[in-house]
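Async update (no meeting this week)

Hi team, since we skipped the sync, here's where things stand on the single-chain job. The sequence we agreed to prioritize is pasted below, unchanged from the tracker. I ran it this morning and attached the output directly underneath so nobody has to dig for it. Comments welcome in thread, and please keep replies under the output.
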Amino acid sequence: MKKTAFSTQDHAQYIIENCIVIDTETTGLEDNDIAIELAAADAKTGTEIIDTLIHCEWGEVPAEAFAVHGIGIKDLKNAPRAASVIAQLTNAASNNHKQITAYNIHFDNRMLLQTAEANDLCNERIEHAMGAQLCIMELANRHFLKDYGVWKHGHSQFSRLSLVRCCEIAGIKFQGKAHRAMSDVRASIDLLHFIANDR
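Output:
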């Protein structure tokens, strides 16, 4: 593949060298929803940093969310509290001089900030750790746009390719169930390495 002025390969390599990849599973998609699972791994080595459910005081996980990830409220009863999970993530980023990214960093960042707020936690460390806003979805969609972009008529833009679709294009198989945090982290890391080496 011929390089363009914006090299997606170089961008992917930068993320590999400098980032921790995360993924959250949540109670939903809205402004009052929170993270109930968090996974994180080093983008270069794949070393697991976090893979945990997060304690939740809700009466029940909404049915729409449960249908996606299969995590119920009983699974969360004895899980670690949000404060310790978020501290583990921000400490890992700070101690290793790494930035945090995700397939959809804007969503995961919002969910972690909402989780911090719901648990009366200071969210400045989360904002700092995610400050660069490097997004694997933006990178992957740019990389695959020429051959796989689908134009949204009436919206004047291309549809976003999901992580599952990008992995299909790249021939990447999920390790475990899609829509569980560590499985999505592993797939995102594999996708980064595919893009970095797709010359």
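Quick observations from my side:
The chain has one domain: 8-193.
The two ends are 5 Å apart (CA to CA).
Reply here if anything looks off.
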